[in-house]
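Following the same procedure, backbone shapes were mapped to integers, yielding the entry below.
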Amino acid sequence: MNIMTFQTNEELNQIAASIVASLVQTKPNAVLGLATGSTPIGLYQELIRLNQKGYVSFKNVKSYNLDEYVGLPADHSETYRTFMNTQLFDHIDIDKNNTYVPNGNAPDLDAECQYYDEMLAAASLDMQLLGIGHNGHIAFNEPDDQLHSGTHVVQLKEETRQANARFFSSIDEVPSQAITMGVGSILKAKMIMLIVRGAEKADIVKRALQGPITTEVPASLLQTHPNVVVLLDKEAAKHLDA
């Protein structure tokens, strides 16, 4: 596990973007696993800049997102499809037909999960981008005594809903379920890039990266992967052993 700590978010974003851009430059038809939330926005802004400057093209790239809320209308401002379009896809030369997000409004959610797993198995992710939740979740794989390997419907923990309530008018509007890529699918990616920012994540970063490997801290399972790059700001890294 390669852990890097940065003094500024600007530097973190630039290094993260250079890793993604280098992959795509080397393999123009790369398959990227993408994430939502506030964590990757700076990275996406830097990728937009590199694309618009002509340094990297996403014309032949495919992408698969980690998760999607269940039950939000397709045109809702807080769906993860909307997020990806507004924060990245609308501003780069990617073919949106090659961008995949689970369908949280599928009439048969179990069938949608199976379909997504079949696509992931055929695609083979070259890189998976991750953040981490305050309780150690990755994607929407919440702490539990056991974890699902494949894509599945998850009942969101109350602390996860509270953490996401800032994006909605009230906690009552935050969906209680989501479709999420499973931990097994995440760990099959050839490379994983974990980005974490902020002092409020310092404790869980310590537990995830240097604590016991346990399903009670899903991110700790990243310790079992042979190719993980971790990008931290100085506040998120403050409890790590040197």
Summary: The first helix runs from residue 9 to 26. The first strand starts at residue 2 and ends at 6. The mean pLDDT is 95. Helices lie at 9-26, 41-52, 80-87, 109-123, 158-164, 183-187, 202-210.
